[in-house]
Amino acid sequence: MSRRKWASSLLLVLGFVLYLMVNEPQSAYAMHIMEGFLPLGWAVFWWVVFIPFFILGLRALIRITRETPELKIMLGLAGAFTFVLSALKIPSVTGSSSHPTGTGLGAVMFGPLPMSVLGSIVLLFQALLLAHGGLTTLGANAFSMAVAGPVVGYFVYRWMMQATGKQKWSIFIAAALADLSTYVVTSMQLALAFPAEQGGIAASFVKFGGIFAITQIPLAISEGLLTVLIWNWLQAYSPNELSLLQRKMKGARES
């Protein structure tokens, strides 16, 4: 019976990954905002905003690995999940792309700060190895995906757990909103850098956000479902690690 349960869970996960890959056009140009697309001033600004979160995230990761080295494998899982999902891209706004982010799972498990490091490492690897995104725009991309998304996902999860006590539903909503909030922030970043001639920043934000919404809403729903499937898999096949995680990390506690 356990083998059948494991096989069905694995097939569901593979099915979602295949769905996202099949729906990914091959001609994409960026991971969020591509290299050189932002004016230099805005590129530097987002680097300055992002760096403090990265430093705090490093401190959080060091503390977790020192106090609970058994959780290193779970950190690796969170990073790998983010890498795989965020590599599935769909061209969207000019100079940008839509894709799942995968940061909701790590935010629920470890809180938002460690994801600022894991998410930025993912973006760096993809910029250097896969030509997705760039170094000048890494600060802006990391802030939207590795900071804003995890923060929203973590606090939504905590609020949902307190309000409903339903963990799977809370994880689904947290992962979906972590994804969507990333693109709300990206839309604002683009609107600030490229205000419309008529209507300024507000009009530009509505335009960018409206285009992103076409692809991102179904992607966010798919990511929420896949995140719940991964959580179910962890409960079935890594109960000891998940139990340790729930004892040590506030984000993953069931109550």
TrEMBL record:
InterPro entries: CbiM, CbiM/NikMN. Keywords: Cell membrane, Cobalamin biosynthesis, Cobalt, Cobalt transport, Ion transport, Membrane, Transmembrane, Transmembrane helix, Transport. The keyword Transcription does not apply. Pfam families: CbiM. Belongs to the CbiM family. Forms an energy-coupling factor (ECF) transporter complex composed of an ATP-binding protein (A component, CbiO), a transmembrane protein (T component, CbiQ) and 2 possible substrate-capture proteins (S components, CbiM and CbiN) of unknown stoichimetry. Part of the energy-coupling factor (ECF) transporter complex CbiMNOQ involved in cobalt import. This is Cobalt transport protein CbiM.
